[in-house]
Structure formats: structure tokens, C-alpha cells
Amino acid sequence: MSVMKRLSMIFRSKANKALDRMEDPRETLDYSYQRQLELLQKVRRGVADVATSRKRVELQINGLRQKADKLEEQGRKALSMGREDLAREALTRRAALQSQIAELQAQHDNLQAEEEKLTLASQRLQAKVDAFRTKKETIKATYTAAEAQTRINEALTGISEEMGDVGLAIQRAEDKTAQMQARASAVDELLASGVLDDVTGPRDDIQAELDRLGGGMDVELELQRMKAELGQAPAPREAIEPGRPGQQAQQAPPPAQHGQAPPPPPPAAPTQQYRQPGEGL
Fold first, then answer.
1. Which of 39, 54, 105, 154 could form a disulfide with 160 if both were Cys (CB 3.0 to 4.6 A apart)?
2. pTM, rounded to two decimals
3. Which sign does the torsion angle of CA 60, 62, 65, 70 carry?
């Protein structure tokens, strides 16, 4: 196969595929129905033309017959007046008219037969056009329903181009929303930890220092508790604040009455000695 034939075949195949994508069966059916209507209109116009010609021939035949009848009457009148020569001339002309009438009658018969054929063809074509119109509308309705069902199924499954674009837009929006939420959470944590400062309000240095010292004290207390659990230091004693639930404030001993000895002081807590790791028992 030559290069030109291959190029021609490729071009025709590409053009055929492009036409298939561009072609709408409903438009094709409407165009075919329009062409059939035009053909039916031409057949009807042909029937009308044949009928017109037939009618014209009929008028000519009627005119010639009237002339022939007139010549026959003239011939009779000439014979009655003894003019045989005039009667012969009238009959000769009447014979010529009879020949023309016969020819026109043959044409009339042919035109009438042609008119009947065209009328029958027009009726059959009309029936075919009506049937095609009914079938066309049925096919169009079925195609429209199938197209709508296909689009609905594609939309439900998300494989259509429009729904694919919508899905991508939703995915991008969700990704951006998640990114903004993560950024907002990170900024909140940085503000809470003091790495970033809130520039929208006045900065309270005293409160910041108190918060820092409080955090350091909490760390020291936790360190002391861990040492006590490991047996390296006594358990820390937290300051008892007045009014704190679950704790009782220390009360001073009542004063001694007159003539009575003062009450003895409370016994001291036993002192526990701790050995450093590595010392002998």
C-alpha cells in the first residue's frame, strides 16, 4: 500500500470518527423526515401538473368537437341549399378535426393514466411518511430517555466530565479547609506556648513572668515527687493555702489558764535517714 493511500485511509477514518461524535441521531431523523416531505411535495406537484395538462387537453378536445359539430351542421345546410361542394369542404374539415380529436384523446388517456399512477404513488408515499414520522418520534423519545439515563448514571457514579470537575473542586476545597484548620491549630499552640505573641492586644509582662514561674515550680514539684518515689529525697511538702478543700489549717495551741501548766508541745515527726546509692546497709 502506497503512502498516499495510507494517508487517505487514515484521514477518512479520523473524519468518520469525528462525524460519529458530532452526529445526533435525532437531527438525522428530522433531516430525513424533512427530505421525505420535500419528495412528497414534489410528487404532489407532479400530480397537479399532470392533472393540469389533462384538463387542458380536455378543453382542446371539447373545442374541436364543437367545431366538428358546427362543420357537420354547415355541411347539412349546404346540401339542403344544393351546394354539394360546400358540404364536401365542411365534411373534409370535420374529418381533419376528428383526427386531431383522436390524437388529443389518446394524449388525454395517457395523462389520465399517469395521473392515476402519481396519485397512487403519492398516497403510498404519504403513508410511508406518516409511518416514518411515528417511528421517528418513537426513536427520538427512546434516545432522549437513554441519554438522560446515561447522564444520570454517570453523575451517580462520578465518571462524567462535569461531575468529575465537581469532585475535584470538592476535593481541593476539603484539602484547603484541612490545611487552614491545621494552620489555625498550630498558631493557637504557638500562642499558648508563648513562642508567638498576640499583636492584637496589649502584652502583660507581669502575667507572663508569673506563668513562667508557676510552670517552673510545677516542674520542681514533679521532680521532687519522682525523687521520693525512687527513694532519693523526702516527699515534698506543698504549701497549704487557707480555704483549699480537702486540707485543714493548722490551729495555734490554746492559751494556758491561770494555775494550770501549759500544754506540752506536739511531738516532732521522726526523722528518716536516707542513704545514698552505693552506701552499705
1. 154
2. 0.47
3. negative
